[in-house]
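Input/output pair, single chain:
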Amino acid sequence: MRTIKTPIIPIHQQFATRANKPHAIDKKAICIYAATGFFLGEDSFYKNKQVLQPGMEYQLDNDKQLIDQKPYFKWHYTPRNISFQTALDEFTDLFESIVKEQSGNKKVILPLSGGLDSRSQAVALHHIKADVESYSYSFAGGFKEHKISEEIATACGFPFKKFIIPPNYLWQDIEDLAKINNCYSEFTHPRQMAVLHEFKKMNGEFSLGHWGDVLFDRGLSVKDEDTPELTLLLKKIIKKGGLELANQLWNQWNLDGEFEAYLKTIVQTLLNQIDIEHKGAKIRAFKSLYWAPRWTSINLSIFEAAHPIQLPYYDNRMCEFICTIPEEYLADRKLQIAYIKQRNPKVARVMWQDNKPYNLFNYRKNKSPQNLPYRIKNKLIREIQGKLGKKYIQRNWELQFLGEENDKQLTSYLFQKEFMEFIGEQTVTDIYDKFKTKDAVFYSHAVSMLLTLSVWYKHKNSPLEAMC
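Output:
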């Protein structure tokens, strides 16, 4: 017998075997995957393979069949009657303690962005005097995010490297990526795959800021406070074009009922298991239970392919802390902003990418008419680039799907005979044609999911643990 205690936010998927289910493809689960970009709950590609859930203690036999299970942690909202300053002091102590424990005496590799999560890590690592090597990347032809990151690194005295994500990198790396993430995430999101070979030249362990933006922000926006929870979550998790693809797959496979009704039932069932009245805290809990481990965590394996990883925001203690902090202190990134401003004002004065060109001291000016000069200038630059034939790149799929060479590679995967027989030739043709002729932005997710499923289907007979 084997005992497994899963973290509150798991980094890795772990599987158990359902003895009463056949080793057959779970087409209903794949429809949800197509719509959202991640599997929900215990679902996997196969009916007899369940994914162990967060915050649970499992007993498995030698065949990985489930004997017993019980939760040791449940998300809750129990806000304490404390001042904001007390909450800030507690966060400071906890966050820096976790960062210090995780980094130890090891060299740290810190990915920096223009946001707040990695910036908070930079401040903490600088304060504890860790040995840090930092880097960032930008899209070729896109916003130069690495320039903001370099300013943060300079403010902390960290060595810094910049990487430019080139077009077409996916096709030479796609088979390796499939082996790394087991096809549990679509292939156009993990831009770090383009520089994996550079990662391997570095020394140390990655300190990653994933999930800080969910834990330390509003569970839902003010305008959504009166929106039913189910409606709100479906709006958040269903990707553009995803519902159309899922409906086509559902009909192609002649599955019972209607896909949307099935999806609503699944999401509502998962929501009902979260015993929290506060809507914002409940949405945050849902995301942490089902979105973080089944989407965000999947591509952490790319970093692990180069070096071990550390995740301060994934720490169990951080999750437990969040459950006790009043929502108003978490809203609008208040705690992180106050932490950075208090601990390292120099870093706080670096531009905040979400509020360009403002920083953490003056970001509230990011509204009309104060921000009009910057917006006008930025628009003019893009228009000039367009007239010069230089497309402004904002999303990774634009580097991988657009252009003649990309199209040749893409169609070689989408229009494989065996895959089209499985997925439906009409489905593949319809989604691809709409991407090419109707709305590339809207259908980019659907095309990316078809590509991912194509590679998975090609390898579906490989050992499950190695390629599933």
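The beta strands are 2-5, 15-17, 49-51, 56-60, 66-71, 108-111, 132-139, 160-165, 205-207, 309-310. The chain has three domains: 1-73+223-292, 84-210+297-372, 402-458.
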